[in-house]
Amino acid sequence: MERVPILKIGQTLFVSIQIDLQDESVIRLQEDLADELAATGAHGVIIDITAVEIVDSFIGRMLTTIGSISRLFDAETVLVGMRPAVAITLTELGLSLSGVRTALNTEKGLEILNGKS
Amino acid sequence: MDELPIQSGDDVVRVRQSVRNAAADNGLSLVDQTKLVTAASELARNTLVHGGGGRARVEVVKSANGRAGVKLYFTDEGPGITDIELALTDGWTTGTGLGLGLSGARRLVDEFELTSKPGGGTSVTVVKWSR
Description:
The complex is a heterodimer. Chain A contains four helices and five strands, in the order ββαβαβαβα. Chain A is an alpha/beta fold. Chain A has one domain (about 5-110): 2-Layer Sandwich (Transcription Regulator spoIIAA), CATH 3.30.750.24. Chain B is of the alpha+beta class. Chain B has a five-stranded antiparallel beta sheet, with helices on one face. The interface of A and B includes residues 20, 21, 25 and 60 of A.
């Protein structure tokens, strides 16, 4: 199983998913992020899914869960870089990812976390 | 034609990659490729989690009017499904999921056929046609 690295820059944790996600990797990411939030006191999480080719119901549910967990650590999660084909497919699948903020790209995601929009 | 085992999370990833290649090579648009691969991911997970593992087959097919399509076949020898109509309902789940896997996969493809009987395993066949 491959792991997704988490980078801390200032008060924000950055996660860029560059692998073909299997269920175990997403569960591991969720645990690693919770540990990292507890250890660093970061106030924001940016998850970049630019390279992610599909988000199915399991991955989608995990992304929503990550948003909920982050909130318990006083951190906001912004999902950035979703591909148009993924957005269309997710909607048809019936997933709304409610509870997770989204932004077009990392820069706009950072603006949200820094309170500029 | 590719026949692939589904016994682990890695196998699910391999099934997705094989479906992606077949869809891309046979003229499916990027959105249709994404829909088919997402459906394959849901069905392969069901085979693994609910069916206790099984097999997937990826086939290229031609319609009567000459359109290319990709046909996927998932089969397991698991406990089977007692109430198929119920299993295909949005939000119905046996576990902790959202209950969108099977019903969502059906919406993402052009043809969907599920056969199952309690104790007799489950087979799902889906087709996505190029436009």
